Amino acid sequence: MTSTLLSIGHGYSAAALARRLSGWRIIGTTRRAEKAERLRNAGLEALMWPGEDLGPAIAAASHILVSVAPDDDGDPVLRTLAAGIAAAAPHLQWVGYLSTTGVYGDHAGGWVDESTALTPSTRRGKARVLAEGQWQALAARAGLPLHIFRLAGIYGPGRGPFEKVKNGTARRIIRENQFFSRIHVDDIAAALQASITRPDPGAIYNVADDDPAPPEDVLTEAARLLGLPPPPEVAFDDAEMTPLARSFYAESKRVRNDRLKRDLGVRLAYPDYHAGLRALLADEVDEG
Question: Quick one: which of 49, 56, 89, 107 could link to 29 by a disulfide (CB 3.0–4.6 Å)?
């Protein structure tokens, strides 16, 4: 019997997973007609949502992946689809919810793991905590095989630092003791696939690489790989940034990934940003 993945909010990470699921029926939702056409051209079934009825897709799904960002009231998927998803619980083999490591809040550069208390300081982080709780509550009521994935900062093809370094717009924002964790999109896909293969309802996984680092170090390495001088330094207090960009600097932490490796047997293809950047640059050269 063919496995069917319903990917609600089919975006960058979900697309990377879909490329790994050979022989699956994949139904992806999107808000935009042009993206729906791209999904169909890639061999997926596409639905416009919000808008189209997802009832038949939920009923047909063996697996569901949710990538939709929450708002201040929590998860918009559950506001409209909770009853249908709950009714489908008996035949669902796996449900994945993509959250973020922003749920942990600021730890002044310290380490966090899945047992760390959730103390977000940003509006986005608080919305994620609310949404996670809503999914966990539904799982408890309906017996949903829920898995939560707390993703670090995502990068990969089309989402690397090289273009800004090459065109001279990159700046190394310097703030003492500022650490970010990252994850290559292919390693996200590998983690999701490993969980699908080895489901553990109720499990929560941090999906991050082995080398949390200050953001300026990543830009310095990108410049080195390009044979260019490092981008200029700008003190955080003097930097011109959008409110969204500045909010990313409100929290500093290093994220442990031990559970991902131990419980799912994941071996990261890109265990640090050095490996990830080298691969991105090699892909750019090949495409060129």
Answer: 49
Residue 134: CATH number of its domain: 3.40.50.720
Region label for 9, one of left (φ > 0), alpha (ψ between -120 and 50) or beta (otherwise): left
Domain coverage including residue 22: 4-155+182-209+256-270
Concatenated DSSP letters of 145-161? -EEEEEE-EEEBTTBSS
In one-letter notation, the amino acid at residue 11 is: G
Count of structural domains within the chain: 1
Of all residues in the chain, what percent carry a pLDDT higher than 70? Answer: 98
State the chain's mean pLDDT as an integer. Answer: 96
Residue owning tokens 């939920």: 58
Contacts of 34 (CB under 8 A, 6+ apart): none
Token readout for 17 is 């997973």
Residue 38 domain-assigned (yes or no): yes
224 in a structural domain: no
How many residues are given for the chain? Answer: 288
Question: Per-residue pLDDT tens for 265-276?
Answer: 999 999 999 999
H helix or E strand, kind and range, residue 27:
strand 25-30
The number of beta carbons lying within 10 Å of the beta carbon of residue 27 is 23
pLDDT for 176-199, tens place per residue?
999 999 999 999 999 999 999 999
Q: Is residue 174 part of a domain?
A: no
Task: Check: CB of residue 87 under 8 Å from CB of residue 116.
Answer: no
Question: What pLDDT, on a 0 to 100 scale, did the predictor assign at position 286?
Answer: 64
